[in-house]
Design goal:
Distance between the termini: 12 Å
Largest sheet: none
Radius of gyration: 19 Å
Helix content: 55-70%
Oligomer: single chain
Number of domains: 2
């Protein structure tokens, strides 16, 4: 997936400001995408009005037959972009999972879909639990834990296994 294609779930989830879309359009052109609206978007400045930028962005996506996902699907798509960055060693696992939780998944009301545990409808509940455990170890005194750094490393190893498993599960998720 190119940087231009990645911009779609990032923008839909509010993690990419509109004033950055002209720069994203330039990346799209460099990646071989070609449409009249994309060329216009690439020529817009950062000081253009957001409605004008959005008009050309959405027109370019339509001209290029790139679907704009709803917010729920966009959050999952963007989360998987971050997962690939973690797996490829481009992002720290704890930072990446925290970003998925705090900056991506919170953009949609997955809490309303809870069956038994938070995020269980999207199978992220194990990773969420490990993130909470890691943060507890990082910021609080934990009774019965003599060596917090060793325990934190163990949790990171569990995170890695759970992340690989979640990535595999999500590959068969509809729309991803």
């Amino acid at each position: 997936m190119t940087k231009f294609e990645q911009s779609v779930p990032q923008y839909v989830t509010g993690n990419l400001p509109a004033d950055q879309l002209p720069a994203v359009a330039i990346l799209g052109l460099q990646d071989g995408f070609d449409s009249s609206s994309l060329w216009i978007l690439a020529g817009l400045g950062k000081n253009e009005l957001t409605p004008d930028i959005e008009k050309y962005y959405y027109a370019a996506l339509k001209e290029l037959n790139i679907a704009v996902p709803d917010l729920r699907l966009a959050t999952l798509q963007y989360a998987l972009i971050i997962v690939r960055q973690i797996i490829n060693g481009e992002k720290d696992i704890v930072d990446g999972i925290a970003e998925i939780h705090y900056k991506v998944l919170r953009r949609y009301d997955f809490w309303s879909e809870i069956k038994n545990y938070v995020y269980d409808s999207i199978y992220f509940n194990t990773l969420y639990g490990l993130l909470v455990t890691y943060e507890d170890l990082q910021y609080e005194h934990v009774e019965g834990v003599a060596d917090k750094s060793e325990e934190m490393n163990n949790v990171k190893a569990e995170m890695h296994s759970a992340l690989i498993e979640w990535n595999d599960v999500m590959k068969s998720y509809p729309g991803l």
